[in-house]
């Protein structure tokens, strides 16, 4: 009996990383890409984020930001982002983000955008990102 309870408790751990606090900031200039942010908490096992899908966007790229030697911030495309078990991985302003290209005009501040995160092991996590305008304060 004790053994089966233990096993049940173990399997209740989430295998797939859990995403939270997702939002998409629209660009100030129409036609420019929007940026998606969220927090990820690693699941029971190490995994790797290999892609993000956003319906309506022509493409969604994971980007990292870094400071160059002369103090400029540049972005680079990331093919994959490691998500170690039980570890927080942030996609936040100034750091990693998802660049969303060519969103339809119908995507407006105040709406919700469904995003799908794809992991190397075939798992997926779905989340709803709050869409905000370029100048809006990030949601709590
Ligand atoms: Cu970018």
Describe the structure.
With 140 residues, the protein is mostly beta strands. It has a single domain (14-132), classed as Sandwich (Immunoglobulin-like). The protein is 7% helix and 48% strand. It contains one helix and ten strands. It has one helix spanning 2-11; strands at residues 18-25, 34-41, 47-53, 59-67, 73-78, 81-83, 88-91, 97-101, 112-119, 124-132. Strands 1, 2, 3, 4, 5, 6, 7, 8, 9 and 10 form a ten-stranded mixed β-sheet that branches. Strand 9 and strand 10 form a beta hairpin. The longest helix is centred in the N-terminal third of the chain and has 10 residues, at 2-11. Mean pLDDT is 90; it is low at 1-12. The structure holds copper (II) ion.
Give descriptors for this structure:
Immunoglobulin-like; mainly beta; ten-stranded mixed β-sheet
Provide a brief overview of the structure.
By secondary structure, the protein is mainly β. 7% of the residues lie in helices and 48% in strands.
């Amino acid at each position: 009996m004790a053994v089966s309870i233990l096993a049940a408790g173990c399997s209740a751990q989430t295998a797939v990383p859990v995403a939270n606090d997702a939002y998409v900031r629209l660009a100030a200039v129409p036609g420019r890409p929007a940026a998606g942010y969220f927090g990820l908490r690693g699941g029971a096992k190490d995994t790797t984020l290999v892609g993000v899908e956003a319906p309506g966007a022509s493409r969604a790229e994971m980007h990292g930001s870094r400071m160059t030697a002369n103090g400029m911030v540049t972005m680079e495309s990331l093919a994959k982002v490691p998500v170690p078990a039980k570890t927080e991985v942030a996609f936040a302003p100034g750091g990693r983000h998802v660049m969303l290209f060519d969103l339809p005009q119908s995507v407006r501040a105040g709406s919700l955008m469904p995003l799908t995160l794809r992991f190397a092991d075939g798992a997926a996590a779905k989340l709803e990102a709050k869409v905000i305008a370029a100048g809006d304060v990030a949601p709590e």
